[in-house]
Write a structure and sequence with these properties.
mainly alpha, about 85% helix, rod-shaped, coiled coil
């Protein structure tokens, strides 16, 4: 409001000669000067009202802009939290996957070791079978049954190894 109260508003009146005003101008001239002063006052009030309205509009826009910024900031914070949650989930899944792969590798290693042991046993059985050819019927039947059991174990291990691979 202090900006609106400029002395420029009344410059037409200030330009009048004070002596003329004091000694008495014609009544029409004085009325005309008063009308000009009143018209300028109304124009100034109108401009002041326009400025106040403009300020209110700008303040409202600023409030809306700040609200938009706040809303956007809130949305970005929520999105950031969600991204962090997803990163944590991915990290947990990766860890679980690594643990599962490690366990599978250990199991594969164990199965491979058992398979080699069974292969050695099978070789021994084959040697025993060769020896069976020179044994009696009862001894031969007992050795053949043992060889069959060992062969079944080896087959199961081979299938297990194939499933793991």
């Amino acid at each position: 409001i202090s900006i609106l109260a400029k002395p420029v508003i009344y410059e037409d009146v200030v330009r009048l000669d004070p002596a003329q005003l004091a000694t008495g101008l014609s009544e029409n001239y004085r009325i005309e000067a008063l009308e000009r002063v009143e018209r300028m006052r109304r124009e100034e009030e109108s401009r002041a009202q326009e400025l106040r309205s403009s300020v209110q509009v700008l303040e409202q826009r600023e409030i809306e802009h700040l609200n938009t910024i706040t809303d956007t900031s809130t949305q970005l914070e929520a999105a950031l939290r969600r991204v962090q949650e997803l990163e944590e989930q991915v990290a947990a899944k990766d860890k679980a996957k690594q643990e599962m792969l490690r366990a599978m590798a250990e199991k594969r290693e164990l199965c491979t070791k058992q398979l080699r042991e069974r292969e050695e046993e099978a070789k021994e059985l084959h040697r025993a079978i060769d020896l069976l050819k020179n044994t009696t019927g009862a001894e031969r039947a007992e050795l053949i049954a043992a060889a069959g059991r060992t062969h079944q174990v080896c087959s199961n291990l081979v299938e297990t190894q194939a499933a793991i691979d």
